[in-house]
Design goal:
This protein is an alpha/beta fold. It contains 16 helices and ten strands. α13 (289-294) links the parallel β9 (275-279) and β10.
Length: 389
């Protein structure tokens, strides 16, 4: 199937992937008077007297805003907010299909950090959570940080943390298969996803991390972004320098969130035995899976659905938000993220783990519920539950 041609045909037919569907019928005067005026005044006044009732009398408890500035749209780059709307609508469809949550796509006509923070923060009364989507690094780091400090609802940049969670889930299981501890992990791509993956790997103590970008192995003397600068003291304990090829010599794991076909078979062959290779650039991976395997990689996972071991954000974000909203969490902290990592990893039973089965399919029923339960439990355990005065 030509997915591009079919997508254009169906998106034109759909005229957008979302619609508003009321939960009640408006067929007579009584229906109208209860759903709208004069009856609607009663829930309005109840919320005025007790703000937490907004989670009872409105859809806020199960509604997420999916917000972008159009600056880093799904591998297409800075194509603008209007062009990003099909992706935002698609994300909203996934929230509903996978977790039963309502989501609203919001594309903002600014890429100014202050304006983004101010505008998004003002949305708080309408939503239970904010999913930041496709905002370019390094701006995404500051936008998320400032919103988390300012807002009393969960704010989550999926391109950072959703990616990191699913990569770590796959890595946890892959390391079990190859029986390795404290591996050397090379991450190529030091933007929002790469920095978040590195951070979560280090927080979970899954191994040592070398972070690489176009300029080579990151070192403290480079001109680093804020996200990279926050990591640099925890990276590269052996103080390697050089190119991606230099980083991969003697490494155990490769994680690619960069560009297609930039890793050679010689690079893979230079890695340690039983190497784990996750070339996740989309649609073209850093190295084709069959080439990586032929060069000596024992386990290969990509971001694509037509290869084994698809590492897909869809495993994470629906359940994470479902759990956070059910628990009435005020944030999505690292304890909740790590709980999600192990919840996803647990969906592949120990006796079924093998080289081509390290991570569950995003379409397997029940994934979001397992993740949601783990996330909600972690939120309650860590005390990040909304407290009303």
């Amino acid at each position: 199937m030509d997915y591009s041609k079919e997508a254009l045909r169906l998106h034109k037919e759909w005229n957008g992937k979302l619609e508003t569907v009321p939960k009640m019928k408006i067929e007579n005067k009584d229906d109208l008077s209860v759903a709208y005026t004069p009856g609607v005044a009663a829930p309005c006044l109840a919320i005025k007297n007790d703000p937490k009732m907004s989670y009872v009398y409105t859809g806020r408890k199960h509604t997420v805003a999916v917000v972008t500035d159009g600056s880093a749209i799904l591998g297409l780059g800075n194509i603008g907010p209007e062009a990003g709307m099909p992706v935002m609508e698609g994300k909203c469809v996934l929230f509903k299909a996978m977790a039963g949550l309502d989501a609203v796509p919001i594309a903002l006509a600014t890429q100014d950090t202050d304006e983004l923070v101010d505008t998004i923060a003002r949305l708080e009364p309408s939503f239970g959570g904010i999913n930041l989507e496709d905002i370019a690094a390094p701006r995404c780091f500051e936008v998320e940080k400032r919103l988390q400090e300012r807002m009393n609802i969960p704010v989550f940049h999926d391109d950072q943390h959703g990616t990191a969670i699913v990569v770590c889930s796959a890595l946890v299981n892959a390391l079990r298969v190859v029986h390795k501890t404290d591996p050397t992990i090379v991450i190529n791509g030091a933007g929002s996803a790469g920095c978040a993956i590195a951070d979560l790997i280090l927080r979970m103590e899954l191994g040592q991390v070398i972070l690489v970008d176009r300029a080579g192995i990151l070192t403290p003397d480079m001109d680093l972004t804020s996200g990279q600068r926050n990591l640099i003291d925890r990276l590269n304990p052996e103080h390697k320098t050089g190119t991606l090829a230099d980083a991969l010599k003697g490494a155990d794991v490769f994680v690619g969130v960069s560009a297609g076909h930039i890793v050679s078979q010689a690079m893979i062959a230079s890695m340690n035995q039983d190497a784990i290779v996750f070339p996740m650039a989309n649609p073209v991976p850093e190295i084709e899976p069959d080439e990586a395997s032929a060069a000596g990689a024992r386990i290969v996972g990509t971001g694509r659905s037509d290869h084994a071991n698809q590492i897909n954000n869809l495993l994470a974000f629906p359940g994470i938000f479902k759990g956070a909203l059910e628990a009435e969490a005020t944030c999505i902290n690292y304890e909740m993220q790590i709980a999600a990592v192990y919840a996803i990893a647990s969906m592949v039973p120990e006796d079924e783990l093998n080289e081509t089965n390290i991570i569950v399919s995003a379409l397997q029923p029940g994934v979001s519920d397992v993740v949601a339960q783990a996330v909600a439990d972690a939120a309650r355990k860590t005390g990040v539950i909304r407290k009303w005065e």
